[in-house]
């Protein structure tokens, strides 16, 4: 059985995932180019019911007030350490299909990474509501993509079907939060575990290069 490529699961809804993204592309661009990028999000009711019916259970739990207050403090601290300008989002009832299914469309058109950058910047650096289809459509337009195609992806039956398949991947991989990194049997959860993942991937890449000579 062929070994799966190293990969990471990201979500536009997670500030920790945003910071992991920034670390990955600025500090470890070689690893960023060598791994698979896979989305992970909290499904809407229709997707949730379909996943449950097929035996797919994603580990979402409500956040306590105490944990929420801790996360607010922790995220601000980590952003300051990275000298990142951060605006805490105000989207009170997010619809994560809007942005993540738009990503699948952007990826299909060869602009997946650019869309990820734009979506993270919009939500965590500019305070925009990426659950608004018009906002997401605007992100697509800035990339030269049809804004209606991206803004309407969350309602497109074919794209929603692809979204269900995408959400099967974290279930199979046992993902329980983001950012989540996998290299072979090694798993790394959290932005602070990214250096360990990078080390593992680079070690394997070096060994493969040495074996080819």
TrEMBL record:
It catalyses: 2-hydroxychromene-2-carboxylate = (3E)-4-(2-hydroxyphenyl)-2-oxobut-3-enoate. Residues 9-201 form the DSBA-like thioredoxin domain. Keywords: Isomerase. Pfam families: DSBA. It comes from the Bacteria. InterPro entries: DSBA-like_thioredoxin_dom, GST_Kappa/NadH, HCCAis_GSTk, Thioredoxin-like_sf. It is an enzyme of class 5 (isomerase). The keyword Isomerase applies. Its EC number is 5.99.1.4. Belongs to the GST superfamily. NadH family. PANTHER family: GLUTATHIONE S-TRANSFERASE KAPPA, GLUTATHIONE S-TRANSFERASE KAPPA 1. This is 2-hydroxychromene-2-carboxylate isomerase. It comes from Kitasatospora aburaviensis.
